[in-house]
Structure prediction request, 222 residues.
Amino acid sequence: MKRADKAEKILQMLEELYPETPTPLDHETPFQLLIAVLMSAQTTDLKVNQVTPQLFTKGPDATEMSKLSVDEIREMIREVGLAPTKAKNIKRLSEILVESYHGEIPETMDGLESLPGVGHKTAGVVISQAFGVPAFPIDTHIHRLAARWGLSNGTTVEKTEKDLKAIFPKNTWNKLHLQIIFFGREYCPARWHDLTTCPICSWAATKKRIEQEARKNRKKKR
Prediction:
């Protein structure tokens, strides 16, 4: 099956499975979304949603967050992975937003990526979900599934992003990004996954890919 035909079928299946794509991270403003996404690295969305209510009560916006000390922020997010580093980044980026952006977050990729702790993926998530700008942020789920489905060679996240943008319509990127994540969590885990029983991998993955993952699972069981 050609990649374009495969992509069209995958898009149709994901739309049927996930017609609604609520943002997994709880927030009320673009600033709060930025902070939540920043904290989600190496941490589950569930854990982030558990710690943000207290944090956003004390620092609901950049102005109020910038007034908190690094120690105060770190204590409130201590259960999140890499909390010390994230606390420093949250404090500093809040100060920068107040100093340079009147307390608002920039609406461009370059502007977002210039902030402490904000990488390309984080910027992509924020700009797509907060402002509706087409982006295709690649997380571990999407990177893995794109390779399994034969939509990208999977060597780097940059290559995966480029490949997926080339085969999916631009107006689907923002929703599709979440649909693939939801599918990965529900049907297509990283470990002990039998591709032959997966709703998409079973027909989208190559025979070689199915055999490779089967061998990998057998080795892990030894």
Remarks:
- The chain has two domains: 3-20+137-221, 30-131.
- The mean pLDDT is 94.
- The domain at 30-131 is CATH 1.10.340.30 (Endonuclease III; domain 1).
